[in-house]
Design brief:
Helix content of chain B: 25-40%
CATH topology of chain B: D-Maltodextrin-Binding Protein, domain 2
Distance between the termini of chain A: 30 Å
Radius of gyration of chain A: 21 Å
Number of strands of chain B: 5
Oligomer: heterodimer
Number of domains of chain B: 1
Structural class of chain B: alpha/beta
CATH superfamily of chain B: Periplasmic binding protein-like II
């Protein structure tokens, strides 16, 4: 199936070169440099393991994405998005590869490799230009499965000035993409492989000029295989039914915006973030608080628990380019710190600066 | 240092709508559809793909930095130019569509609208010619 799509894309590309108005090429990227100024380490990007230490590093979250969208007919298009991530040695990976079929003006079907639409920012968390912060809140965006192969139906309708967008998806993630489990291996040690099958999810988003409310629900069967664990008793294969609920709210008050997102990943953890932004001319200032709490506890203390407070700035210094600056303080309150430092508390302060662009 | 100065200076400017001459939203002369501000916004944000009754709608946008464009985006899309770009980056890179094509001048805009019944664009009222129909004014 995937090879067939690749072939289809290649053919469309070839014909697109001859008729250029059928082909739309665009891209995005971020160059981000960070340094832990207090503490020993900070996980800035859980799904892709962007981890900083006390040396200035532009090789964790910097990335470039290229997208080609080819119009095949009035109803049909094919899209391919490839990305190179610094923390993956800039190896190019296909992030999206799908055909889009417009059933009518309001309903479309996507088939192929897509992003799991669970969080509000899930599908565009790599497109820094599209949000105010230097990164999506790490504590609240830690889900290890980000892509799936399958089908997605998108429906749009409106009632006066109120828009309603609904999504239904079914599929499975690729069991051959070990990077989906890298974060679990990073946290648990040893080697953790996870595959998700029977993925089904729905999402509903209501929006007006100043308000966005979105709810998603997903479920799947997860098969996990652990090997070479620190504790041999942890090795082996387990099957778990999982479900994920996410709620996102955004309200704009003139130049002020407030964003709130909460999610519960049953049976593992819950997390949330709250952020306020204030726009003044080309500058947008932000405050953010995010928290992660694992359900599993030792006594009354979650095994993994941490929160982050961030203060930052986005400055749109050129069209399609935004400079960002951020200072974040992580407070690790779990039984086992994610990043151990000299006093073993996992707390850290990190400075980051970067540029996001789109073209 | 220059960047720092720019940030401080820009922060002192209070966010306010840009004042502008009247805007005219234009379509082909054969297009008889009525248009509301909400509907127009949906077309430019890719939330509606067609006119209320007369088929496919293809929005055209003026080039980045054009003074008429800034006013249009603020009044119709209710977004600044960078918010509009950010919105379309989100749509585009999640496979939800592509942004309106850009045309470099009001003259080109009128020319393209006058030749294609699917196209909807906008110009300063003072630039409107008899070749197009004004469907909405701001």
């Amino acid at each position: 199936m995937k090879h067939l799509l690749l072939l289809a894309i290649t053919l469309v590309w070839a014909s697109g070169i001859m008729a250029n108005d059928r082909l739309f090429i665009s891209g995005f990227g971020s160059i981000i440099g960070s340094q832990v100024v207090d503490g020993s380490g900070y996980v800035a990007d859980y799904p892709n393991i962007g981890v900083y230490d006390d040396q200035f590093d532009v090789g964790q979250e910097s990335k470039l994405g290229l997208q080609a969208r080819a119009t095949i007919s009035e109803e049909m298009s094919a899209t391919m998005q490839v990305m190179s991530r610094a923390n993956n040695e800039y190896e190019t990976e296909v992030e999206w590869l799908f055909v889009n079929y417009a059933i009518d003006d309001d309903l479309e079907l996507q088939a192929g490799k897509l992003r799991v639409p669970v969080y509000y920012f899930s599908e565009f968390m790599d497109v820094g230009y599209a949000y105010p912060w230097i990164r999506v809140p790490a504590d609240a965006y830690s889900l290890d499965v980000t892509s799936f192969n399958g089908l997605q139906l998108n429906h749009r309708t409106y009632f006066g000035a109120i828009n309603l967008a609904s999504t239904l998806y079914v599929g499975r993630n690729s069991p051959r993409s070990p990077e989906d489990s890298e974060i679990m291996s990073f946290i648990f040690g040893g080697n953790v492989q996870r595959s998700f099958t029977g993925m089904v999810g729905v999402g509903f988003e209501i929006s007006t000029d100043n308000t966005i409310a979105k709810v998603t629900y997903s479920q799947a069967s997860m098969k996990q295989t652990r090997s070479n664990s620190f504790n041999v008793a942890d090795d082996g294969t387990t099957n778990t039914d999982i479900n994920f609920i996410d709620v996102y709210l955004q309200q704009n008050f003139g130049a002020f915006s407030v964003m709130l997102e909460y999610n519960d990943y049953d049976p593992f953890y819950s997390s949330y973030f709250v952020s306020g932004t204030y726009q003044m001319g080309r500058a947008t200032y932000y405050l953010m608080h995010s928290q992660f709490e694992l359900d599993a506890k030792i006594g009354s203390t979650p095994i993994e628990e941490h929160d982050t407070n961030s203060l930052g700035l986005r400055y749109d210094f050129k069209p399609r380019m935004a400079f960002k600056f951020d200072i974040s303080m992580i407070n690790d309150t779990g039984s086992f710190a994610v990043n151990k430092d000299s006093n073993n508390d996992g707390d850290a302060t990190i400075l980051s600066a970067g540029v996001d662009f789109t073209f | 240092m220059k960047l720092f100065k720019q940030i401080v200076l820009s922060s002192l400017i209070v966010w306010a709508p840009i004042s502008f001459a009247e805007l005219a939203v234009i379509v082909h002369k054969d297009n008889t559809d009525a248009m509301t501000a909400d509907y127009l916004q949906r077309i430019f944000l890719g939330k509606s793909k067609g006119f209320p009754t007369s088929g496919k709608a293809v929005p055209l946008d003026l080039a980045e930095g054009h003074p008429v464009r800034e006013a249009f985006l603020q009044n119709v899309a209710k977004k600044t130019a960078s918010q509009f770009t950010a919105y379309w980056a989100k749509q585009m890179f999640t496979g939800k569509g592509v942004p309106p094509k850009l045309v470099s001048s009001e003259k080109d805009m009128i020319d393209l609208v006058s030749k294609n019944p699917s196209i909807i664009g906008y110009v300063d009222v003072a630039s409107v010619t008899a070749d197009v129909r004004v469907v909405l004014k701001f």
